């Protein structure tokens, strides 16, 4: 049986309780509620022998296809640090690990005020409170790419935002275009959903710009989405406006929508200019993913968002409705953070951002300067984010078959852990996280230098040994 419940205009996305299912109707506070009743079943109608004879509980195909490349590689490494040297982990993309990069006091006060208000202890609409969505829209809106609250979907971190976008744009059997080197989550999510991943190359000699010719060669009639990550994890690169326009041209010629992963947006060094992708597009629809995690230094708060930048009504109502339906599978991100969101966005002082960026640039310059003079290594200076990629001239380190073995031994001998770039589909490099305290960054570079000096072999020496 069913009945209608009036809720005096209170916004919610459902009634939750024993035996009750609910769904909101047009946001007018009227809920149609169906109540389950017990129905008797005639045992005679049950098929004979329909019950199972033995337990058989198996993991789903989706779970078996879900693999995080970083975990797969790191879990298989023999990581036994040198007991005589304290461990320096340069592998974790979490700026809070060492405690030297706290978030701003205004951010903390916004959270405390949200808690003390007692307004945010219940369920919010699955796409987020309207006021919180409007706060994000106002923060990122610009004349070239205007946003309203309806154009924002709040998510449980940028990672869930990315998952929602891939899920709404792709079907099993489709393919997506992903950067190489690139964040491993794209592949993890896509493969688990039966979506093929095609990697397009980034060019280290051009500060990790996209190889546009290679990118376009990968597109076919099954290509559902192009993922563009700028600023980049793991490269720390920032695309120029000119290069971004060329990327959009490729997408435009081939009618491919873009997922713009801009979680490191505006985390760029002085002298570099970050521009979001959407304001540069006149015809390519873009779903931009971001969040609080990195710029505000609170990754554990799990607050992300999708900015819907439709062009020429290409997404129409279908993609918007799809994102809403997908977000309804769970009840959205933390309501307390949503309650604090407007204050966090509007009251964080510019000095906080500048201080963070200044520190990251200084550490990046220290790391690049120190490792540039290490024989056998080729670091690529970043322009933003929190990372620097370092090339290894593997032919000069014959003891190691690949970057995984190189970084494994670096832990064993020097207690310095850098992530092998095989985890990003890019062998013979390793990634360094530059958020560690400065003295730790300097010490790590000294140890890396000692390690390379011990194991480096010039080619002439290799040839001589082979002749013998």
Characterization of the model:
The chain has 468 residues and is α/β, with parallel strands linked by helices. It has helices at residues 61-65, 69-76, 105-116, 130-140, 157-169, 185-192, 212-217, 241-254, 316-327, 335-347, 350-372, 403-414, 438-455, 459-467, and strands spanning 2-6, 20-24, 30-35, 88-89, 152-155, 175-180, 196-203, 209-210, 223-229, 258-261, 286-291, 304-309, 377-380, 387-392, 416-417, 419-420, 429-433. It has an 8-stranded mixed sheet with strand order 5-12-11-10-9-6-7-8, with helices on both faces. Strands 13-14-17-16 form a 4-stranded antiparallel sheet. It has a 3-stranded antiparallel sheet with strand order 1-3-2, with no helix packed on it. Helix 3 packs across helix 10, helix 5 (157-169) packs across helix 6 (185-192) and helix 11 runs parallel beside helix 13. It starts with a strand and ends with a helix. The model is unreliable at 1-35 and 462-468 (pLDDT under 50).
């Amino acid at each position: 049986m069913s009945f209608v419940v009036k809720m005096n205009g209170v916004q919610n996305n459902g009634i939750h309780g024993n035996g009750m299912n609910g769904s909101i109707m047009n946001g007018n506070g009227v809920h149609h509620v169906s109540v389950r009743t017990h129905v008797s079943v005639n045992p005679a109608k049950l098929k004979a022998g329909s019950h199972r004879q033995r337990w058989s509980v198996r993991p789903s195909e989706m779970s078996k296809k879900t693999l995080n490349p970083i975990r797969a590689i790191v879990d298989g490494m023999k990581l036994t640090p040198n007991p005589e040297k304290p461990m320096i982990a340069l592998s974790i993309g979490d700026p809070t690990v060492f405690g030297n990069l706290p978030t701003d006091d205004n951010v903390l006060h916004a959270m405390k005020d949200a808690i003390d208000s007692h307004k945010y202890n219940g369920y919010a609409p699955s796409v987020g409170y309207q006021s919180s969505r409007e706060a994000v829209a106002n923060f990122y809106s610009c004349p070239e790419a205007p946003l309203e609250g309806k154009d924002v979907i709040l998510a449980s971190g940028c990672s869930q935002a990315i998952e929602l976008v891939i899920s709404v744009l792709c079907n099993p059997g489709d393919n997506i275009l992903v950067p190489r080197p690139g964040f491993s989550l794209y592949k993890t999510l896509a493969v688990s959903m039966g979506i093929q991943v095609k990697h397009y190359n980034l060019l280290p000699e051009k500060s990790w710009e996209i190889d546009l010719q290679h990118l376009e060669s990968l597109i076919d009639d099954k290509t559902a989405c192009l993922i563009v990550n700028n600023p980049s994890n793991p490269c720390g690169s920032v695309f120029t406006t000119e290069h971004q326009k060329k990327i959009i041209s490729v997408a435009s010629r081939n009618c491919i929508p873009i997922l713009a992963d801009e979680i490191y947006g505006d985390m760029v060094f002085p002298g570099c200019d970050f521009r979001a992708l959407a304001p540069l597009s006149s015809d390519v629809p873009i779903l931009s993913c971001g969040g609080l995690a990195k710029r505000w230094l609170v990754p554990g708060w799990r607050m992300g968002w999708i900015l819907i930048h439709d062009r020429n009504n290409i997404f129409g109502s279908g993609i918007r409705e799809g994102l809403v339906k997908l977000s309804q599978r769970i009840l959205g991100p933390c309501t307390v953070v949503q309650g604090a969101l407007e204050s966090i966005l509007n009251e964080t002082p510019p000095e906080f951002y500048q201080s963070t960026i200044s520190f990251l640039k200084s550490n990046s310059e220290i790391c690049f300067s120190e490792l540039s003079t290490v024989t056998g290594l080729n670091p690529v200076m970043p322009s933003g984010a929190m990372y620097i990629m370092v090339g290894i001239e593997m032919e000069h380190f014959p003891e190691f078959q690949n970057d995984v073995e190189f970084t494994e031994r670096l832990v064993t001998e020097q207690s310095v852990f850098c992530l092998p770039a095989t985890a990003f589909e890019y062998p013979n490099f390793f990634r360094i996280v530059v958020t560690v305290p400065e003295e730790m960054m300097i010490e790590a570079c000294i140890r890396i230098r000692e390690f390379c000096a011990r194991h480096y072999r010039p080619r002439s020496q290799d040839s001589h040994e082979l002749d013998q």
